[in-house]
Specification:
It is a single chain. The protein is an alpha+beta fold and 150 residues long. The chain has one domain (2-139). It contains 4 helices and 3 strands; from the N terminus they run αββααβα. The protein has helices at residues 2-24, 54-71, 78-100, 121-145; strands at 29-32, 35-42, 107-112. The protein has a 3-stranded antiparallel beta sheet with strand order 1-2-3. 31% of the residues are buried.
């Protein structure tokens, strides 16, 4: 389940980024309210931090991918496999940009809300996957703790 989810995320992320590079290079698209599709390149990490550190961020992403692959061996629940697949796919999607696209290690971003940093499909999947994994782990911890008496 995890690897299938990751593959779907990478495919959707890379397809959307290829579309963005080709279409949005002609100009932005206003969708609704504060949502625009605007082509940008991020050589940093989330929220534009660590600008220009693309090689370091690519190495860090590779380590995270290896760690996630190792963690998969112990996953028994489909919901946790889905969560880790979202994170893995997002990490691989952004790592692919840094290594394979000719933008000097930059990641293609194109979803602009104007009150939040511009992001992409991979970023969204990472955030949703981490939140889901945390919620599942928190629920497991509460279940193991049993009923609270006071």
């Amino acid at each position: 389940m995890c690897l299938v989810t990751a593959a779907v995320v990478v495919a959707a992320d890379q397809a959307s980024k290829s579309w963005a590079v080709h279409r949005l290079s002609r100009g932005p698209i206003h969708v609704v309210w504060k949502l625009d599709l605007v082509l940008s390149y991020n050589t940093g990490s989330a929220f534009g931090l660590a600008q220009g550190w693309a090689p370091v961020l690519a190495a860090l992403a590779a380590v995270i991918v290896v760690g996630l692959l190792a963690a998969l061996r112990g996953v028994r629940r489909t919901s946790m496999a889905l969560a880790l697949g979202l994170v893995l796919g997002g990490a691989l999607g952004n790592l692919s940009d840094r290594v394979l696209r000719g933008h000097h290690g930059a990641v293609v971003d194109f979803i602009a809300l104007h009150f939040w940093p511009t992001f992409n499909v991979a970023d969204s999947c990472i955030v949703v996957g981490v939140i889901l994994a945390a919620a599942l782990s928190w629920g497991d911890d509460r279940a193991r703790a049993g009923p609270q008496t006071g």
